[in-house]
Write a structure and sequence with these properties.
The complex is a heterodimer of chains A (about 190) and B (about 70). By secondary structure, chain A is of the alpha/beta class. In chain A, about 35% of the residues lie in helices and about 20% in strands. In chain B, the strands form 2 sheets. Chain B has a 5-stranded mixed β-sheet, with no helix packed on it. The chains are: A alpha/beta (about 190), B mainly beta (about 70).
Chain lengths: ~190, ~70
């Protein structure tokens, strides 16, 4: 495909980003650079100084809602992008309506129970929409064990074993790699469909 | 019986089991799991009553925190 053909295909596509932390903010920025038509950003949190070790925000944005700051940052890169934000703590009941118009949904939550909730709800109510999940990316190094797996309409990026915990923090390079693996998977789904 | 578990052939010493049995046999003690049988989601509340048969394609995905 030429760049023009890629842009033309992406011009009608909408991607949902569930969680705008380390995975979601970096994945959204990568997708914004591709010429996508629209992004739906979902998060309830505000930016703290601790987030700046890996999330796509700036020091002067500490205290802002992540969805608003991310919209601001993305529009500085690509002012033509249509961005819809949802400032909420996502619950299962909201998922079907919120994401029903998306071509792909990126699962970019921090906590395992939220990841499970989103994947289960998508599989149950919107099984036709591909979900790209990030699973296992704490720590550093070990680039070669990061992989991408496909199970029907569910795509899993990460190593599947490196859980965040004491002595195993999430850090920019490895979180960024998985966020970009997710963006790359989204692109693959959109361009091959 | 033989089933497919996460893309690998797995021999189970029984003719029919439920999801709870499989998780016990395979020592999947994690809490955050997504289970699919032949492409269909099995909810946690149905683990006790959902049977796995010969030849079934089973996926057990363990979700871990970080993002």
């Amino acid at each position: 495909m030429t760049i023009e053909e890629i842009s033309k295909t992406l011009q009608s596509k909408k991607v949902g980003i569930a969680g705008c932390g380390g995975l979601g903010s970096n994945c959204a920025v990568a997708l914004a650079r591709t010429g996508l038509h629209s992004l739906l950003l979902v998060d309830y949190d505000v930016i703290t100084v601790d987030n700046l070790n890996r999330q796509y925000y700036f020091l002067d944005q500490v205290g802002m809602k992540k969805v608003n700051a991310l919209r601001e940052n993305i529009l500085r890169i690509n002012p033509g992008l249509n961005i819809v934000v949802s400032d909420c703590k996502l619950e299962s009941a909201d998922v079907p309506l919120l994401f029903s118009g998306c071509d792909v949904v990126v699962e970019a939550f921090d906590l395992a129970d939220q990841k499970m909730m989103l994947i289960e709800t998508m599989l149950e109510f919107l099984p036709h929409i591909p979900v790209v999940s990030g699973n296992g990316m704490a720590g550093w190094g070990r680039t070669n064990i990061l992989s991408s797996k496909k199970i029907d309409n569910l795509y899993i990026c990460g190593d599947g074993i490196s859980e965040v915990g004491p002595g195993m923090p999430p850090i920019a390079p490895r979180v960024g790699i998985v966020a970009h693996m997710q963006a790359n998977t989204v692109l693959e789904i959109l361009l091959n469909s | 019986m033989n089933i497919i578990l996460n893309n690998n052939i797995e021999q189970i010493e029984a003719d029919s089991i439920v999801v709870t049995d499989l998780l016990r046999i395979k020592n999947f003690t994690f809490k955050m799991l997504v289970v699919k049988i032949n492409g269909t989601l099995v909810k946690k509340s149905d683990y006790e009553k959902t049977a796995i048969h010969e030849g079934d394609d089973v996926m057990v995905l363990h979700l871990i925190s970080g993002g």
